[in-house]
TrEMBL record:
Any matching Pfam family: BTB
Residue runs in coiled coils: none
InterPro entries documented for this protein: BTB/POZ_dom, SKP1/BTB/POZ_sf
Annotated protein name in UniProt: Kelch-like protein
Source organism of this protein record: Anaeramoeba ignava (Anaerobic marine amoeba)
Domain BTB: 5-81
């Protein structure tokens, strides 16, 4: 192995911030996610998306290194801070890495904001299986939307 000769390990496709957070977790047994509270107060969605991306990278790394507790901490953090822009990409990642918790969270969150999400380009790329699960959480329900269209048109006449 090359690591034995060179005394170094090369990680490809791993971001420095994520690796640093893994090391902090290993040495301190604490999870220090990027602080999102200030960004939420300031409505800084760019920072929130970037911190979500870092946590998603950390989630993937924790799966790779089989660090189940860290993976769960990432799931909880994402469920509390995930921006709407990141929900559909996170849904795809949750499917890839078998995260039932994140999957259910994404289905619920997208379903509860169904009207806004159905207008997005990435929503149209979702698989039928995902759409069926999202519709279980759809709000307002499709029956209400149909009723509103039907009786809204009658009231216009």
């Amino acid at each position: 192995m090359q690591e034995n000769i060179n005394k170094e390990i090369i990680f490809k496709d791993i971001k420095f911030e994520s690796l640093l957070m893994i090391l902090e977790y290993i040495y301190s047994n604490r999870f220090f996610p990027p602080s999102v509270e200030l960004a939420i107060i300031e409505k800084n969605t760019t920072f929130i998306c970037n911190s979500n991306k870092i946590i998603l990278d950390l989630f993937i790394l924790s799966d790779y290194f089989q660090m189940d507790r860290l993976k769960q901490l990432c799931e909880v953090n994402l469920s509390q801070t995930l921006s709407h822009e990141m929900l559909i990409p996170t849904l795809q990642i949750a499917k890839t890495y078998n995260s039932e918790f994140l999957l259910e969270f994404c289905y619920w969150e997208i379903g509860n904001n169904f009207i806004n999400f159905q207008k997005r380009k990435d929503f149209k790329k979702l698989e039928k299986e995902d759409l069926v699960k999202i519709k279980k959480f759809q709000y307002p329900p499709q029956e209400y939307i149909d009723w509103q269209k039907k009786y809204g048109e009658l009231n216009k006449q």
